[in-house]
Amino acid sequence: MSKRVHPQDVMKALSGVRDAAGRGIVALGCVKGVEVGEGRVSVALELPLPMSVTTPAGQQLLRAVHEAVEALDAGTVEIHVARPSSEPAGASGPASAPGAGHGSAPAQAAAGTAPRLAPGVRTTIAVASGKGGVGKSTVAANLAVAFASAGRSAGLMDTDVYGPSVPILVGAQREPAVVDGKIEPPIEHGVKIISMGYFLPKDEAVIWRGPMLHKTVQQFLGDVRWGSLDYLVIDLPPGTGDIQLSLCQTAALTGAVIVSTPQDLALTVASKAIAMFQKLNVPILGIVENMSYHVCSECGHREDIFGHGGARAAAERLGFPFLGEIPLDLRIRTQSDRGQPVALDGSTPQGKAFRDVALALETELAQTQVAEEIVIE
Ligand SMILES: Nc1ncnc2c1ncn2[C@@H]1O[C@H](COP(=O)(O)OP(=O)(O)OP(=O)(O)O)[C@@H](O)[C@H]1O
Ligand SMILES: [Mg+2]
Questions:
Q1: What pLDDT digit, counting tens, does each position of 304-322 carry?
Q2: Is 142 in the pocket of ligand 1 (CB under 6 A)?
Q3: Same domain (yes/no): 15, 73
């Protein structure tokens, strides 16, 4: 008797399958669809170019996919291989139309006619909230580190020019360099980083006007050598004003992650951020509840300081995926201050919490990128 599984379980199983270069096929957007029927699981795949079903590498990958799904014990496994799109992921040129190719499909929709300023970046994720201090930067930095720890190529872009905190969060051991007129981003904990914090005089107030901000983001995308990246995580400044709007339009986002604390107030404000992204046609990839609960570092007693589960309930009510809960935890704060994001160590509960959110996000992304029509080879 086969087990009943959910498509999400299948995606989870497939997220462990890697191509010959060691990149996860889910992260690469190769999984185009999963269907679960009575005693049957069907997976639609697009092999990463230049792989094809006739090559040994292609065959090996198909076997690995088959084995991963078979291990779920959900019945017969069917694999449909779609013809790869003609343009390799991250190829230069304007953004592809929504749904075309296996890159960041909704990117163009997000920004209307915004060109892809960083064409090698496959997935651009904004981390936002309606209000300040809820942990956007902490979540953004830990997500980028979690992706890198899982073997993805990741970048982190800090667009908060008034209070850039990313250099501190990642330790900033290195400085950006300019090579042939382009900015070489420093790499910290395996993540390519850019932030205005590297370029601003310390402890000096800066006055920015809208057009300057717009230009900065354009430069951060177009003049930084991101190379080819699976994920570029963008830390947005607090609020939902013109600055955020302009940033989102310039960045041609794949989607947004909303960070909220559990209180009703924060959630009401988070819904402002949601409304902003919806106005821009940017898909909401999910909601993360930060400072969700507190576990005493001395006695292990758990307290729901701000209430608990409010963000999950709101996500359910609004129909958005809930990506996970991050505890309010002293270690998260102290390690952030020391430039050692907790996600570096997946064996701690704090690190695991962030890594689980990254995995949930990756699964969600793969599902939003599912092609509607599958061409069987
Ligand atoms: N889960 C957590 N547990 C403990 N401390 C946290 C947690 N999340 C964030 N913090 C701490 O809360 C403070 C604010 O976090 P962070 O800077 O990430 O928020 P933010 O939303 O980016 O703020 P801003 O709106 O100013 O950009 C930081 O000192 C950070 O270390
Ligand atoms: Mg911040």
A1: 777 777 788 888 888 889 9
A2: no
A3: yes
